[in-house]
Amino acid sequence: MNEEKYKKTVKYFKENRTANTILKIIYKILPLAVFVSYPILLLWSIIFCKNEFLKLLLVPAFTFGIVTLLRIIINEQRPYEKYGIDSVFSKKTIGKSMPSRHTASAFIIAMAMLYVNSVLGIILLTISVFIMLSRVLAGVHYIRDVLVGAMISILIGTTFLFIL
Predict the structure, then answer these.
(1) What pLDDT score does 140 carry?
(2) How many angstroms separate the CA atoms of 99 and 152, rounded?
(3) What's the whole-number mean pLDDT along residues 94-105?
(4) CA distance linking residue 95 with residue 48, whole number of Å
(5) Whether 108 contacts 153, CB under 8 Å
(6) What is the full DSSP assignment across 102-155?
(7) Which tens digits make up the pLDDT trace of 22-51?
(8) Is residue 67 a contact partner of residue 101, using CB atoms and an 8 Å limit?
(9) Which of 114, 130, 140 shows the shortest CA–CA distance to 32?
């Protein structure tokens, strides 16, 4: 997103009350729903599928660690830093924009759920797409940040949950 598009997008979501409310729900509530589903998945695996628990614990943890390490190494500026304008929800984090950890986390949790239950996995993957879009629309990530976060999770999830 270039500076002009960034400014227009942020202005639109700050000035349009309905759009702001919808974006806020997607930006704040959907990640919470996905992240709450993860301990439930782990608990379910302990009770009903003990042999899968370690895989369901370690693959997302590994993904989270890789994404966190990449964010530190790359340390890319966020759009609101680069353009000197507040994001829609006035986030203040400096750097660490690439890759998006919210996006990566949502996608790897969705992949873990998909491994266990295809219907719930598809629902969480769909929610993850909305989370991904909300990070860009709120002005806290570039499109490339969220795409890289999603791709890392899909690649690691497919490899370690479904192939190996």
Answers:
(1) 96
(2) 9
(3) 97
(4) 41
(5) yes
(6) HHHHHHHHHHHHHHH-HHHHHHHHHHHHHHHHHHHHTTSS-HHHHHHHHHHHHH
(7) 999 999 999 999 999 999 999 999 999 999
(8) yes
(9) 130
